[in-house]
Every structure is written in C-alpha cells, then in structure tokens.
Amino acid sequence: MTDMRTETVSLSGHGAYRALSLRRQAILLMLTVGLCAAFVGDIATGPARYGLGEVVRTLVAPAEADAQMRVIVWSIRMPSALMAMVVGMALAIGGAQMQTILNNPLASPFTLGISSGASFGAALALAFGVALIPMAGDYIVAANAFVMAMATACLIHLASLRRGASIQTIVLLGIALVFSFNTALAIIQYFAADQAAAAIVFWTMGSLTKATWPKLAITALAVALTLPVFLRRRWQLTALRLGEARAASFGIPVRRLRLETLILVSLLSAIPVAFVGTIGFIGLVGPHIARMMVGEDQRFLLPASALTGALIMSLSSVLAKIAVPGAVLPIGIVTAAIGLPVFLYLILKGGKEIW
Amino acid sequence: MVVLSTDRLGARFGSRQVLRDVTLPPCHGGEVVAVIGPNAAGKSTLFRRIAAILPGPGDCRLEGVHDSDRAVAYMPQDQTGTAVLTVFESVLLARKQVSGWRLAAADLMEVDRALTALEIGDLANEIISELSGGQRQLVGLAQCLVREPQVLLLDEPTSALDMHRQLEAMRRVRNLAQDTGMLVLIALHDLNLALKFADKVAILSGGTLHDFGPAGEVLTPENLAATFRIRARVEPCSQGKPHLIVDDAI
To answer: Which positions, given as ranges, span the membrane (chain B) (predicted)?
Structure first.
C-alpha cells in the first residue's frame, strides 16, 4: 500500500484515483494471464505429461489433435482443472465477503465451521449410510455435506439475529462449531469400519478427482449467480469496512445487508465443499493477497479475490500431481501447505497494513 | 429553505429509555444549532433518530427538502476503522451511497471539491486507517459534505482536534450553513464553542429536552447547574464578547 501511495501522491485528487484504478485493472489483467497459464499447466500435468504448446493446440483445435490426447485433455483433465478454478473462486469470494461483513480478518468458511459441518455430514454418509436428503442416490455424500454446511450457516445466521449479538459472538460461535464438529467427526471415525474411516479421512483432505461436469456446472452456477449480486452491492459492502456506525450513517441497512450476504456466502461455500471435500486456507489467504494488491474497493477486491483463489487452487492442483512421482496428493493438503506459511507471512510482515 | 422539527421523539435500548418526548421547535436552514448536554444525555441518540438510523416513537418533520434520500447526512462520533482505503476512496464511498451505482466523472469532481473545501486535499491518497483522530474527523466531515445534504448532523466533530483546528472547523461549519442554506445540528462538549458559533442551543439532559433557544438565553447559570452540575456564568471577555466561565463542580 505504501508503494501505491508514493507512486500517486504527486497527482491530485481524482487524477491519482484514476491512476490507482488503472493500476488495479492492470493487476487484474496480470492475474488473469497467470490463471490462464496455471490452467494450461494443470491440464498438462498428470500421469502422462504434455508440453504446454501441445495442450494449447488441443484446447484451441481439438479436432486436429491426437484422439488419445483429446480424450485425456477434454474428458479427463478438463473437469478437474476447471473445478479447481471454480472452487478457488467460490471459496475466495466467500472468504472475502465473510471478512467484510464480520469485519474480521480470520473469517472464512473454514474458520466459521461451515467446512467442518460439511465434513461431519459427509462422514455420516460414508460411515453409516445416513442420508439427510432421501433419494440423494449417488450424491448422498455431497448432499449430506451440503445440508450440514447450510445448517451450520443457518445456526450462525440465527445467532446473528439474537439481540445484542456482536460480530465477536459470531466468530466465537464459529470457532466453537469447528471444535464441536471435529469432535463429532473423531467419534464417527472411532466407531466406523476401517474402510469407511479411511474414506472419511480422504474426503476431509479434499480432492479434485471427484469432479464431474454436472458438479462443475452447479458450482459455476453458484458463482455466476452470487457474484453479480455482490458486484451490484459493491459500494455498500465496501462501506461496511469503514465500521458499522459510519456505514449506517451513510443510510446502509447494515443488519439486512450482513444477513443477506451471509446467506449467499454460505451457499457459495457449501456447494464446493460438498463436491470436493474440505479445502482450507483458500478462503482465508486468497482475499488477503487480493487485498494487498488492490485494496478494499469491492469493484477490484471481488474479481481479484476470485482470480487469486482460482490461481492458488490451479497451482496447488499442479503441485498435487508433481510433488510425489506416481501419486496425486489430496489437494487440501497442498492448499494447507501453501496457505499456512503464506498466512503466517501475512500476519508477521503485512498484518499492520492489512488490518 | 429546509426546516426541521421533531415531535415527541423517543428511543429505547432494551428496557432503557434513552430519549423521551424530544420536541424541537422549527430549526431553519442557514442556522447552526448546538446540541449540548452531559454524558449520556441522549445527544447521539437524538441524531440517530433524526437520521432515521434508530427506530422509535415520535416524528421528525422536514420541510423544503429537494431529495429525501440525501437530505440528511450524519457524522457519527466513531471514526475508527481498519479499512485499507485511501481518503479519496472513503469519501467517494459516501458519495456513491446516494448517487447511483455507476461511477461518474461528477462523483470524482464532488469528492475533490469536498476535500478542497476542508483543506485536506493533500490527504487524498493517504490510507484512512493511518490518519490521526483529528484528520479522520475532517474526513468524516468530507464524507457528509460530498452527499450535498440540506441537514447536517455532526456528533462531536471537534473532540479530537487541537484548539486551532477546533476554531477553524467551527468557522467552516458556520460559513457552510450561511453560504449554502444548510441546517447544521452539532453536538458539542465545549460550551464556549457553542456560545461563539451557534445561533441556537438545545440542552438535553436525561434523554429529555431541557431548554432550547438562542445561546445567550439558554446558557444560564441555572440551566448549567441543573444539567451539567457546574457553577458557571457568562461574562463579557476583554474584547467584549460573551464567554463562559466555569467556577466549580456542584
């Protein structure tokens, strides 16, 4: 932020603001280019590795590509590569908005218990075959995870509606929910059969191998439906960061805005977790990196968070495939391995500038 | 010209009645009305009721308003925050709450104008959370002005300013009211500022309106003793201007 300021200080008022906006647009462009490169890299890596040029040619002109490569690129790797991007977008946008409405830098689907709730729901299905939505069929695990994630979000909503409930109350409730669900999960694992316990462990690590076109479509739809709503309310949401009193003084219905945003964010967080399992740190680190690059203005923060989240997920997907030869690591392990040090770095080096 | 009056305005926090039957006589555009009173007298609550931020019984009447959405601007006491926003952005945010969701060149010009009017144009690119308390108060004032209100509610806007800036800020507010026909209600703790700059004074005590009228008529030893629990008097200073002298607490 300091560099940004010294760069523009010589310009006056709105001239400097325009320069700042252009700089932010350039950052968004660079993130988009980086994401495209990571996406191609994600498709190129796997048990059979391809050159980036080959992959691009197959993507641009599939009819001219080798049949085997066409199947691998378009039918096998494309859904998981796209899923990585869309899940990263959804979690990062969700995290950015949670941090905004709760005015807390540690808020994310992961830290508020939504991911833990989903894991608990999934474990019920994997260990005991309990279906929270009858007739869920092959989607029993995802359906259970979704129901529990939304139930957790509803619990947080109800708590926020209580008279005198502060933002700190909500965050502490989220932490209590994380511990409660983790305890319940441990109990389920203890009583579950060995095979089921292993399945639960694998699910909670998150994996893109579960990606399919229908799951991808539903997740993308959640992003496509919620992002325009957030962008429409960008001035109000940004004003929330000035504090509740000042936002209210601008005529913003703070409580209603917070509640409606929390509902949309819950949806945005529950769907990806239901489909790919628990993926931590994206919703926490993605928005922080985006905020360091483009500031709080939601016109830039939202797309920057989405692009940063997608970029981290795509790079994590590549790392998951190349870190251990012959094996694909669960992506949740990789995001945690990348996210935790980045998060610690942010706290220790950049904390004062961010918060 | 805008005219504001209230009729039995009230507010309650849980079981606690914090504002009761406050009926302000008509206050006219171009006037500065100081709202004074001891701590917890209900000054902020009155402003929040007038700004329609708090629900409660009673009516607030506004006549001569051009645009009801932007007629009243309220500057709260609390100017803290951790946002990574520049001063220019934060003032623009206030403007964008009342001027549609697309950013227009006129919005940027208005922000420039507000910052220039308060002589804080040099802070435009500073991060708001890194400013001093006094600078934040000036930014808060700019956030109000940029909305082009007809009624301005300022909740202790000088509490973090040094003496020079207090006088400067009050003079600016005074000129603003006279030049633009804006009605300014300003909560103050410094009674001499009220005496010097306000056309009228409203004294609140225990959530009710104790007295209302021209400063010279309202700031009497009896009123000050009854509401502030101080022994005080107004006497002409060496320049012949009225000055409040506080002798002791009662």
So the answer is: none
